[in-house]
Amino acid sequence: MGDKNKGKTKQDDPTWDHCVKVGDGKKLQCKHCNNSYWGGVFRIKNHLAQTRKDVAPCKNVPNEVCDVFKQILGESNKKEDDVVSCDGENERDLKTKMMLGGKNRVNTLNTLWKKGDRESVCKDICRFLYANALPFNLVKSPYFKTMLESVASFGPGFKPPSYHEARCNLLKKEVEAIKTDLLEKYKVEWKKTGCTLMSDGWSDGKSRSITNFLINSPRGTVFLKSVDTSGIIKSADNLFLLLDSVIEEIGENNVVQVVTDSASAYVKAGEMLMAKRKKLFWSPCAAHCLNLILSDIGDISIHKDTICKARKVTVYIYRHSWVLNLMRTHTKGRELIRPGATRFATSYLTLNSLEENKIGLRAMFGSEEWQRSNYSRKAEGEKAMNIILADSEFWAAIKYCLKSIVPLVKVLRLVDGDAKPAMGYIFEAVDRAKDQIARNYNGIQKHYKPIWDIIDERWALQLHRPLHAAAYYLNPRFHYNPEFNAYYEIKRGLYETIQKMCPSPLERESVDKQLDLFHNAESMFGMDMAIQMRNKKQPALWWESFGGGCKELQNLAVRILSLTCSATGCERNWSTFDQVNIYF
Predict the structure, then answer these.
(1) Which of 40, 93, 124, 295 has the fewest Cβ atoms within 10 Å of its own Cβ atom?
(2) For position 132, what pLDDT does the model report?
(3) Residues contacting residue 308 through CB under 8 Å, at least 6 positions apart
(4) Are the C-beta atoms of residues 201 and 172 closer than 8 Å to each other?
(5) Where are the alpha helices (DSSP H) in 204-298?
(6) Are 293 and 404 in contact (CB under 8 A)?
(7) Which of 234-238, 359-363, 413-417, 469-473 comes out lowest in average pLDDT?
(8) How many angstroms separate the Cα of 155 from the Cα of each of 36, 158, 198, 278?
(9) 389-413: per-residue pLDDT in tens?
């Protein structure tokens, strides 16, 4: 009896009606979703049949096509089930015999053989991680899985990239791919929501001065480029020229604000930018300003003395391994946060950490082990012990300091994080922090007034900007709160922002009329769903959903409420980038 598949050509396989070869012909591209895969026709069949077998299902394949390929694969599986094993038994019978513990999972001979192979492969992969001191969370990267799938699809004989390819050819191609593919996708969003240009300087391993430029939008923060500024004097004029050229590259209409630190040269450069580009805002980094507020508070005598004592204790404990081990025993493994050299908030987090571990620290220095040790008889040890056990004012002072700091640290976490655009929240957050500080001191003015003065000075001179006031006014979470009060400072900031972002008199008039609809919760703003979602949706998304009847105001609100307040996205560990940057 003749084989019915004899003489069958590629054109006879219906799969080719739904895919094409791409590149060098080793990958096939689905005509329905345009995704490309290694592995040949069989993998495309599973893709079209949506079996999820070693390939992602096609989301665009018509139902009738999907059903056809399910049927084709079903007939193929029947043939495989009829294959006889080397012992003369049908594999279907073997499946039944190898049921484990009554579970519904079936292990075929192929699965059992591959189980041993997989362990061997995993050992090789993990050995690569261990030998190169790579972090374990690397295996959670989606690129790690994609890499292994590509290698597996290629099959035996794959030749890995050479040292030269990895550091030159392929690296340059990846950079170009990011510029053409990824950045283009971001640019589409920037036209709609606007973006924030962030700038920050650092020094690489060769002591070169590098200035990074990153762009933030609701989609996330993306690295744009870095410039070697070693031979450039960081004057206001030079910084202006540098920032202005980057804005030109991104597109002036896409950039709503520029955020840098509050150094005098950047302040002047920001003013020059706003003078040239009338719709642009310059803002100092909110996280940097809040750290300066904490620094100023740290100069108050009670704060300064308390932090100094806390530093003596933590430095002493972590300098001696035996003492550190004893502390961990009494604190049940909990660590003390040690003060950093630049982040002023860390000093206060240390005070909070000492307060939380007070019982364990007092138990440690009062223990028989400590008393019998040589450390207890040395001068440094006695000082640390006396601070913890004998200095009653120390613990009272910690509580006193934390009353003014904890509310401000909450604001710092808001502007320092990437969870949501902070522009719509910072104005209210600072006011709320001040109110909480006053309550913490039971309304006693002599205690909270010095803190308020420091906050007000930094807020008024550096942090408070028209954008912050406008974002507060347009945030539905606050605007419709019964306690909302649009006093003069807020209204002025709102209209200064409108005047700057809407140069057309006709557009300004439309925005002003639409503000009344928003304020009075008319049109879609008054719908039950809009009211329900005021406190649940991010402000910019709320405006996208319910601001359609006020197009001009909607566009303005989305661009304002999508902004970040700080340039902390620039302040990352650039050691990896340092290794890549040297090749360009």
Answers:
(1) 124
(2) 94
(3) none
(4) no
(5) 236-250, 264-276, 286-298
(6) no
(7) 413-417
(8) 17, 7, 44, 58
(9) 999 899 999 999 999 999 998 998 8
Q: How many CB atoms lie within 10 A of CB 305?
A: 14
Token pair, residue 153, equals: 């699809």
How far apart (Å, rounded) are the C-alpha atoms in residues 391 and 399? Answer: 14
Residue 477: phi, psi to the nearest 5?
-60, -40
Q: Are 36 and 27 in contact (CB under 8 A)?
A: yes
Closest CA to 370 of 308, 317, 314: 317
Angle CA 302–286–546, to nearest 5: 130
Do residues 397 and 306 lie in contact, with contact meaning Cβ atoms separated by under 8 Å?
yes
Residue 530, number of CB atoms within 10 A of its CB: 19
331-343 per-position pLDDT tens digit: 999 988 765 534 5
CA–CA distance, 273 with 239 (Å, rounded to integer)? 10
Residue among 217, 212, 213 at smallest CA distance from 185: 217
Instruction: Round to whole Å and give the CA distance between 6 and 310.
Output: 84
The amino acid sitting at 263 is A
H-only helix segments in 391-502? 392-416, 426-440, 445-458, 466-474, 476-479, 488-501
CB–CB of 380/316 below 8 Å?
A: yes
pLDDT band at 570 (very low <50, low <70, confident <90, very high): low
CA torsion sign for 207, 211, 216, 220 is negative
**The token pair that represents 477 in the structure block:** 């979470």
Q: Mean pLDDT in the chain?
A: 84
In three-state secondary structure terms, 424 is coil
Long-range contacts formed by 168-173: CB under 8 A, 24+ apart: 168/583, 171/580, 171/583
269/252 Cα distance (integer angstroms): 16
